[in-house]
Amino acid sequence: MRVLLVEDDQAIVAALADLLASEGMEAVAFATQSEACAALAATTFDIALLDVALAEGNGFAVCAAARATAPEMPVIFLTASDDEYSTVAGLDMGAVDYITKPFRPRELISRIRGALRRANPAASAIAVGDVRVDVASATVTKGGKDVFLSALEYRLLLCFFQHKGKLVTRDALRDAVWESAGEYVSDNAINVYVKRLREKIEADPTEPTIIMTARGLGYKVGV
């Protein structure tokens, strides 16, 4: 998931980028109206988070550009808690939601997932075999039954599923799952995490058909 983040407070940008990365989303941040509008014309995003007041320009103009270039993409405004005018104006322009500052991280993630799910419910799911990941709601099912994963296991599975049919190296897993938190894990630790994940999603963890080992290289994900 690629998130267009238009915000000129760098502390908020850094916090949001880390939060979104922990949920398997990539934040592409811009501080000005002109930069954001240029990005919309050149790049595809899944959702936009727009601050109303910018040092150069404003979020309303970016929302208008988003409606023109990507009318199906959901837009969420970030507004001051007492800014009723901005809230109403943003919704009238086609935004699907607004978040007041300061916001609670888990609530923001929930609002983002809800907006993505409403915008395109079918595209928010990735399946390999009988295992299905609903990215918008961060839920996993196997054969229609819920599979309960830890946050780390979910991020690991999402990384695998986003690269189904391709080789996934251990370095790629480190970058996607642990690097954003500043952690380093050994190859043996990764093997343990993958083993635990297989025990939850494979019909026979000793003969995996979803996450298969490519000896000396990493893992190959089934299709």
Structure description:
Helices cover 42% and strands 23% of the residues. It has two domains: 2-119, Response regulator (Rossmann fold, 3-Layer(aba) Sandwich), CATH 3.40.50.2300; 125-221, Arc Repressor Mutant, subunit A. It has helices spanning 10-22, 33-42, 59-69, 84-92, 105-119, 151-162, 170-178, 187-201; strands at residues 2-6, 26-30, 47-51, 75-80, 97-101, 125-128, 131-134, 139-142, 145-147, 167-169, 211-214, 218-221. The protein is of the alpha/beta class and 223 residues long. The chain is elongated, with a radius of gyration of 19 Å. It has a five-stranded parallel β-sheet, sandwiched between helices. A four-stranded antiparallel β-sheet has the order 6-7-8-9, covered by helices on one side. It has a three-stranded antiparallel β-sheet with strand order 10-12-11. The model has no long low-confidence stretch (mean pLDDT 86).
| Rg (C-alpha, Å) | 19 Å
Count of distinct structural domains: 2
The average pLDDT score comes to: 86
Report the top-level CATH class of the largest domain: Alpha Beta
Order of helices and strands: EHEHEHEHEHEEEEHEHHEE
CATH topology of the largest domain, by name, is Rossmann fold
**Superfamily at the CATH H level of the largest domain?**
Response regulator
How many runs of DSSP E, i.e. beta strands?
12
User: Largest beta sheet, briefly?
Assistant: 5 strands, parallel
The geometry reads as elongated
CATH architecture of the largest domain: 3-Layer(aba) Sandwich
Q: Low-confidence segments, ≥5 residues, pLDDT <50?
A: none
Strand arrangement in the largest pleated sheet: 2-1-3-4-5
The tally of helices reads: 8
Ends distance:
20 Å
